[in-house]
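Section 5.1 Outputs to date
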Amino acid sequence: MTQAEKRIYLIKSLLGERLNYSDMSIPTNEQEQKKMLRSLFNIRMPSPVSEEFLHIQDEYLQKEIEQKGITELTGLRPVRKQIYLWQGDITTLRCDAVVNAANSQMLGCFHPCHCCIDNAIHTFSGVQLRLACYELMKKQKHEEKTGKAKITPAFNLPCRYVLHTVGPIIHGVLKESDKTLLASCYRSCLELAEQNELESIAFCCISTGEFHFPNDKAAEIAIRTVTDFIAKKQSRIKVIFNVFKNADQEIYRKLL
């Protein structure tokens, strides 16, 4: 099957899961098809799926990521010992683990084609990621607390694992408790990485954007928490601060 044929197969399969979508027409335009497929991935509830679907999905997503261009950690230069700053798409980074800024349900973003990192990571990992998160939350029997972290396989991403953490949502004035919770996100991810003997971890800008944490304050907390952890634990872990926006790149560049 070509990449286009795989995309059509996946769209038809996902449309077929919903009775009210079964007669929906598929666009002929490639970009519109990709948008439709991503939307269907995003709204799909965590339920079992056939091995055939997974096989075709995995081949399709891995090819899509490859076409975007995979960045190897080995090709990056540290800005400090064990510390890297990289601007790019975190779903294309090959390292041990990437950090996902999750919500308390821990099931990914259900809003079709939303621009958040939670949406991107779940989209390009594949439907297995939502299923894995669902199993974790079913065992836990309550929503994830702010500042904590969970680990899952990364499935179709170039990295090996995804660390999911729930950052604080800012309403109005930034409080000291918000700062403490954000620091806890970084610390929880680092502790989980050490427990699983991971050698590298890429942090997104947790709680900024949709959660409205001021970008400059968030960066200060991120850098301070990571450097303190490495020093106190004498950790050898390599940490990548992944930024997507130019503004965040400039903030981190100045602080580092």
